[in-house]
C-alpha cells in the first residue's frame, strides 16, 4: 500500500509539472498546482524545499505538510481527523467539532487555542522547519455572552509562507490583531455565515488581512458555500479546485487576492 501511494503521488507530481511548464510559469496569477487526490497523502519526496502541502480534510480541519515532512492538523477533533497521525494538532473550543477529548497519543504537540486556566493561550513553537504561533480572539458563549480569549488564530510559518487558520472566529479583527498576525499569504476562512460570523463581517476580515490566497472551510453543503461565494465575488475572483490537496509556494501565490474552493464540507 505504501509503495502504491508513493507511486500515485509521483504520477500526480509528474502530471502537475507537465501542466505547469513554461506556459504556467509565465502566469503568476494562476492558482497553486494540484498534485494529489483527496485520498493521497503527501510524502517528503513530493514537496520541494519551497513548497507546502495543504489538504482539506473536512469541516475546519486541514492537513499541512512542510518540506521536511512535519504534519499539522488544524482544529483537530474526534469527528474530523486526517488519515495519518500528525506531529502537531491545533484545537479551538467553541464547539466539540473543533477539539478532541482524546487526541491520538502519538501526536507530539497538542496546542489548545484557549487557556483552561483562564486568560489568553500563548504558543510559539518551532518544530523542525515550521514555526507555529497563535493570536488570541474572543468567542460567544452560551447566552451570547463574550468569552474572552476562547479562540486562537493559528499561524504556521514555513517555506517562506505564512498560513493562518482563523479557527472559530466570532468578530472582526482590530488593528492589534492584524499587527500580531503580520503578513499572511494563505488564509483558511470559516464561511458558514452564522455559527462564526455573518458573511458581511467575514468580508471585512478578508479585506483587512488581504492574503493573496483564501480558502473557505466550515461550510455545511453547497447552499452555505454558495451564499458566501455570492458575496465574495463582489470583492475577489473565485476559482475551484477539483482536488482537496494542493501545493503552495511563494512563487505561485496569486499577485492579487483570490479565493480557491477545495472540495469538501
TrEMBL record:
Sorted UniProt keywords: Signal
Protein's UniProt keywords contain Metal-binding: no
Protein's UniProt keywords contain Magnesium: no
Coiled-coil region(s): none
Superkingdom of the source species: Bacteria
InterPro entries with a match to the protein in the record: RibonucZ/Hydroxyglut_hydro
Signal peptide range: 1-25
Record-given protein name: MBL fold metallo-hydrolase
Organism in which the protein naturally occurs: Microvirga aerilata
Classification of source organism: Bacteria, Pseudomonadati, Pseudomonadota, Alphaproteobacteria, Hyphomicrobiales
Amino acid at each position: 500500500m505504501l509503495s502504491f501511494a508513493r507511486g500515485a503521488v509521483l504520477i500526480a507530481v509528474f502530471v502537475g509539472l507537465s501542466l505547469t511548464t513554461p506556459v504556467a510559469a509565465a502566469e503568476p496569477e494562476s492558482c497553486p498546482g494540484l498534485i494529489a487526490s483527496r485520498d493521497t497523502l503527501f510524502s517528503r519526496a513530493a514537496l520541494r524545499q519551497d513548497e507546502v502541502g495543504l489538504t482539506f480534510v473536512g469541516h475546519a480541519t486541514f492537513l499541512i505538510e512542510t518540506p521536511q515532512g512535519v504534519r499539522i492538523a488544524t482544529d483537530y477533533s474526534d469527528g474530523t481527523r486526517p488519515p495519518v497521525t500528525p506531529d502537531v494538532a491545533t484545537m479551538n473550543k467553541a464547539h466539540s467539532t473543533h477539539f478532541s477529548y482524546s487526541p491520538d497519543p502519538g501526536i507530539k504537540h497538542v496546542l489548545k487555542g484557549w487557556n483552561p486556566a483562564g486568560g489568553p493561550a500563548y504558543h510559539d513553537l518551532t518544530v523542525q522547519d515550521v514555526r507555529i504561533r497563535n493570536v488570541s480572539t474572543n468567542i460567544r458563549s452560551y447566552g451570547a455572552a463574550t468569552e474572552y480569549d476562547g479562540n486562537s488564530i493559528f499561524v504556521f510559518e514555513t517555506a517562506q509562507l505564512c498560513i493562518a487558520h482563523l479557527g472559530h472566529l466570532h468578530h472582526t479583527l482590530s488593528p492589534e490583531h492584524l499587527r500580531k498576525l503580520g503578513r499572511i499569504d494563505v488564509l483558511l476562512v470559516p464561511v458558514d455565515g452564522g455559527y462564526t460570523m455573518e458573511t458581511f463581517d467575514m468580508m471585512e476580515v478578508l479585506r483587512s488581512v488581504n492574503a493573496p490566497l483564501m480558502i473557505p472551510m466550515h461550510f455545511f453543503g453547497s447552499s452555505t458555500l454558495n451564499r458566501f461565494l455570492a458575496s465574495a465575488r463582489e470583492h475577489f475572483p473565485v476559482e475551484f479546485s477539483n482536488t482537496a490537496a494542493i501545493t503552495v509556494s511563494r512563487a505561485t501565490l496569486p499577485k492579487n487576492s483570490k479565493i480557491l474552493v477545495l472540495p469538501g464540507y
